[in-house]
């Protein structure tokens, strides 16, 4: 009798166990910018996340926009028409980006969030909720992503629980480039290519120094040898093509000469253009 | 804060109408850069454009936000849609307190070949409505080399006046002392970020010793890139030689008609000039040395004599592509130079670690 009455609280986890989310830094920037520009009476900012769902189930969040909303203790009102307008506009530019969820600033999930999540789940089957803690409450800026998981008691739906999913910050190479200048509050001028080259070379040299030091330490017994690192190093060194020094020299010199030729050609062209200009202005005295 | 600075600049603009401080630099937010990079990269190799929004404060042009334009087909109804889209976006952004003040536009380019007549025309269109506007050019193909290729351009004032009068004859250019380098002015870019964002970013991404762009920079397969550059260069040269070929019959005609009233001395110089131009035209068919001289003559000639083409109104507009083309020639040239420098550097420094390990 007792066993017949007892029902089990089910957490359906299998659908979300391998769900993870990837966020592009642009989204974070957008959110921070919207937070800084929010109207004075609003405590937090709410907005829509755009992106796509990849083939392995990962949600790729690529873009976002803020949606004006009003919030009070009891209720939350979202400007739905604005949301739709922005969605249509964004899709004109990039039809592949669809709604994948929504974001809000501030740590943790509040009661009002459940209502908003409900609204978004009517647009998308499984929306992702992103919270960005702009208040740095834990001493760091935490960004978390949640999906809603249904809690069912037997057959009847009880409630929805926000369950956290792993989040990954992902960046495209081109964005990576600008990244160093994006970290500080202001940069006086964009780095030129030569400077970038310099920085790269310095980093490379630093890396090589590290490896050298490590190998030295291991040989002298100061650091315990780690076989996997050792294998890695030997693989790397073996990956360098085996060329005899004269062959290598020839290779390098050939390519260098090709480039010098191009340099010469372009210099000639530039000189010619300068001459032509001078002749043009001088030749009119006819 | 944005509102108060808008009010200040508004007052300033209203009060000091005559004094226009020259634009010293463009201050861009990191957000805008990321958006531009993302948009251009997604649609590369297609060329895309977008609108820049921000504030014009004194000698600094601040760009605080931007939005992309959808790819427009050549269709009349889509034109109206494009305008609607723009209005809609501006309105929506206003609601979330973004500065919806247009300060220019951005576009992507391939290997720096952006000097076209359309660019100049767009500039003129914008200039009518906005006092100060810039165009930001982003080159996604150069970013594959590990360089952030972002440039802010503005048309120089003297060129704009000349364009308005639509007069590109040689004497006019000489009067204004305008050469092809004076068409566009490049403005230095400064990047600014709010403190919140920099805090986030510094925390999310620790300073790794080596980043992906380092790997990109150390790549040796720059040959395809150089080849494309050279292809562009050669195409431009072909264009130039074609221009000058068209102009040749006119110059002959001009010589014939103008020797009679002129003194012997003058016609002699003209003959010498024409002969040198002939030689140039012969050379330019083989290599690139010399098309520019005759091309400049064509500029002068075309302004005074109609070219023998079917469309008689064409010659009037003919001079206009020429300065731009010359510029694009030069710029492609410069790019070839740039990447040569990079490559030279790479090659020199590449040998270093090799020898060290070996």
TrEMBL record, chain A:
Entry's Gene Ontology molecular function annotations: metallopeptidase activity; translation initiation factor activity; translation initiation factor binding
Cellular localization per UniProt: Cytoplasm
Record keywords: Cytoplasm, Initiation factor, Protein biosynthesis
Gene3D superfamilies: Cytidine Deaminase, domain 2
Xref: InterPro entries: eIF3f (IPR027531), EIF3F/CSN6-like_C (IPR024969), JAMM/MPN+_dom (IPR000555), MPN (IPR037518)
UniProt cross-references to CDD domains, sorted A to Z: MPN_eIF3f
Domain MPN as annotated: residue spans: 21-152
Family recorded in the similarity comment: Belongs to the eIF-3 subunit F family.
Function noted in UniProt: Component of the eukaryotic translation initiation factor 3 (eIF-3) complex, which is involved in protein synthesis of a specialized repertoire of mRNAs and, together with other initiation factors, stimulates binding of mRNA and methionyl-tRNAi to the 40S ribosome. The eIF-3 complex specifically targets and initiates translation of a subset of mRNAs involved in cell proliferation.
Subunit structure: Component of the eukaryotic translation initiation factor 3 (eIF-3) complex.
Protein name: Eukaryotic translation initiation factor 3 subunit F
Organism for this UniProt entry: Hibiscus syriacus (Rose of Sharon)
Lineage: Eukaryota, Viridiplantae, Streptophyta, Embryophyta, Tracheophyta
From TrEMBL, chain B:
Gene3D superfamilies for the chain: Cytidine Deaminase, domain 2
Region (Disordered): 294-318
One Gene Ontology cellular component annotation held by this UniProt entry: eukaryotic translation initiation factor 3 complex
Keywords: Cytoplasm, Initiation factor, Protein biosynthesis
A GO molecular function held by the record: metallopeptidase activity
GO biological process: formation of cytoplasmic translation initiation complex
Top-level taxonomic group: Eukaryota
The MPN domain, residue ranges: 26-159
Composition bias, Basic and acidic residues: 294-303
Cell compartment(s), UniProt: Cytoplasm
Family per record: Belongs to the eIF-3 subunit H family.
Self-association and partners: Component of the eukaryotic translation initiation factor 3 (eIF-3) complex.
Name of the protein this chain belongs to: Eukaryotic translation initiation factor 3 subunit H
Record organism: Hibiscus syriacus
